[in-house]
Amino acid sequence: MTKLDIKIILDDYIDMIYIYEIICNDTYNYYYNLKFLFEFPIIFINVIMTIINSTITDIFIIKHSNIFLNVTTMLLVSLSNYLKINEKCEILKINRDKFIKLYNLIEKRKYTEDISVDFIDIVITNYDNIIENINFSFPPKILKKIRTQYAQKKTLPLFINGIKKLDKYRGDNGIIEIDISD
């Protein structure tokens, strides 16, 4: 493998790691906001239940209000658990940090040492291991935004790109120069 091949492969992986970090970060923000949309009403409902239980003396009103508010709370908690929002947030945060560490490792090594095929293998293995930890799909609107924003600027991971990038489309600067817009 020539030094140019190694540089192209490394640059492609730097781009894909960068893109994955952005996808993880944007998706984390998406799920974090969704989490807030589920948790805020639960807090609000608990405040209402406390007020009702503290101020109203009619048992009939208290009973029916508590039943309604408990069912609503349970529905919100069940939906949140079903969608696994907390779990997704945690996975995304951990993997975003792993992508940043891998990116920094490559950047550091790129300017301080000669890059070997073994190092490329380590990068690819680490990249694949991080991706395997993400066991759910990313929101399509985030993928579309990233694809639109970076398709002509970065090498995109295959799942977001929609086409296989071929070296015959790669310019001298290592960037793919074909039109892949919708």
Structural notes for this entry:
The protein is mainly alpha-helical and 182 residues long. It has helices at residues 3-55, 59-83, 85-112, 117-132, 140-150, 158-161. The chain is elongated. Mean pLDDT is 86; it is low at 163-168.
What structural category arises from helix and sheet content?
A: mainly alpha
| Mean of residue pLDDT values | 86
Distance between the termini: 35 Å
Morphology: elongated
Portion of residues in helices?
A: over 70%
Give the helix tally: 6
Low-confidence stretches: 163-168
The helix/strand order is HHHHHH
Strand content: under 5%
Largest sheet: number of strands, sense, barrel closure: none
Gyration radius, rounded: 24 Å
Structure summary, number of beta strands: 0
Keywords:
mainly alpha, 182 residues
Tell me briefly what this model is.
This protein has 182 residues and is mainly α. Helices cover 75% and strands 0% of the residues.
Would you spell out the secondary-structure blueprint of this structure?
Elements: H1 3-55, H2 59-83, H3 85-112, H4 117-132, H5 140-150, H6 158-161
Helix pairs in contact: 1-2, 1-3, 1-4, 1-5, 3-4
